[in-house]
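Here is one such tokenized protein:
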Amino acid sequence: MATAAVLDDLRVRARAIESVRAAFGRGVARLGGPFDAALPWGGLPHRALHEVSGLAATSAAAAFGRRFLGRGGVLIWCRNARLVGELGELDDAGFARFGLEPARVVVVRAEDDAEVVAAFEAALRCRGVACAVAEVGRLDLAASRRLQRVVEAGSGAGLILRPEPDPSPNAALTRWRAEPLPAAAGIFWRLVLWGGRGAAPGVWAVRWDEPTLSFAPAIPAADAALGEGRAVSAAGTAAG
């Protein structure tokens, strides 16, 4: 009964956005300088599953989600009541830092993994959804393959959000781990691309650039160059 109620609520909300033109169904979501050149697709492809885990997974998923909304559509976030304590609360102020306006975000509250996956699958079938997020503890290979077929037939992207990385295989195109980086101000992560298909593993220290709503290097290029110059100078002094 609970799952039926969740799906009925989602269908009601979906009807209000079905008229949105799905101009985001092809190509990739550009992430920003640190990633686009390193990823073989030049960004994160639409019509694919991507997984994000780790202590900073929620904020990283919000950032990825915002990039998928770059060409229109809405974000549907399927919350798991059993994982709220691990993944943290969501609020409008937090979404606002990622440029996610309330009118473009639909939060669906579910009781467990099964309800989340059912709502997530329904969201991926909605034409006006640029990105759907599913908070899950576990996702087996068969279920992930079914969801990948659904997202390929649609036009948006799917983000699997989980507290801990799971080495078990699934159909996600990319698999990320996000950890917070200490900083005086702003949103900083250590993002690890540790699995997936078609992309080499990598590690990036990045920040969320709020004015451009994109990822940027944690240390600006000019500061990094200055730091390298100081290091060379110090080494030369020591050698002398």
